[in-house]
Q: What sequence folds into this?
């Protein structure tokens, strides 16, 4: 028996909100269209959707849609699996994107020119069901610099020793990078360190007790953007050398 759950005074279909890890059988149906033969008791009423900006490097979100479940399944927590596809048409979506099993997905350089689609599969105690979203618009290449991963520091925060920064992850054509180093006092006031414009920074006496982070600015013909690393631990004084 298929049931409806009641919210307030009206009867509404259950809106699935869970995004649990995929069961081992999740990859058994890999073709579009009709990747699975759904259990008749687990049925989508509204299809999944994808929202976001379809630009390289941006994050997009899959929404599960609305489903009906048999009473035995509705009394337990259905498990949800997401599979993302790159598509050239509604019937040509055979490339399952490796490692993209969650409801949130960051568009990659390999996605540029493709339209995206997501398959939501529900697993319940009495059966499973699957449904696809409509195709999105085609993913376009990033133009303005866009940060996809923060810069990372390495080294020990000790006076006289060096910290090294990466530039982090970026998308956008023909990027150039500028380095800056910033020191932050315990009260949260931060200042750019004069003359510190290389990937490596050697800590000075005035850095002791303060936290250091890097700031990377990426620039191309379309504009510029900046990203900061996480701050270091408070800089320790140099250890005196015993003679």
A:
């Amino acid at each position: 028996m298929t049931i409806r759950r009641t919210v307030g005074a009206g009867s509404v279909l259950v809106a699935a909100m869970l995004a649990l890890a995929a069961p081992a059988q999740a990859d058994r149906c890999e073709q579009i269209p009709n990747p699975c033969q759904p259990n008749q008791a687990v049925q989508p009423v509204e299809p999944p959707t994808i929202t976001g900006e379809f630009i390289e490097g941006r994050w997009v979100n899959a929404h599960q849609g609305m489903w009906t479940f048999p009473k035995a399944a509705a009394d337990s927590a259905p498990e949800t699996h997401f599979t993302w596809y790159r598509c050239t048409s509604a019937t040509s979506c055979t490339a399952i994107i490796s490692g993209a099993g969650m409801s949130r997905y960051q568009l990659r350089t390999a996605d540029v020119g493709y339209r995206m689609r997501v398959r939501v599969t529900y697993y319940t105690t009495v059966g499973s069901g699957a449904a696809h979203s409509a195709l999105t618009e085609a993913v376009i290449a990033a133009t303005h610099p866009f940060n996809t991963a923060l810069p990372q520091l390495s080294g020990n925060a000790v006076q006289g020793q060096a910290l090294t920064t990466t530039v982090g992850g970026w998308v956008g054509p023909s990027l150039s990078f500028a380095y800056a180093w910033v020191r932050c006092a315990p009260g949260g006031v931060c200042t750019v360190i004069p003359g510190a414009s290389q990937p490596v920074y050697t800590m000075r006496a005035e850095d002791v007790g303060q936290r250091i982070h890097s700031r990377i600015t990426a620039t191309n013909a379309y504009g510029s953007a900046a990203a900061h690393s996480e701050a270091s631990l408070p800089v320790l004084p140099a250890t005196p050398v015993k003679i």
Observations:
- The chain has a mean pLDDT of 82.
- The first strand starts at residue 2 and ends at 3.
- Helices lie at 71-74.
- The two ends are 85 Å apart (CA to CA).
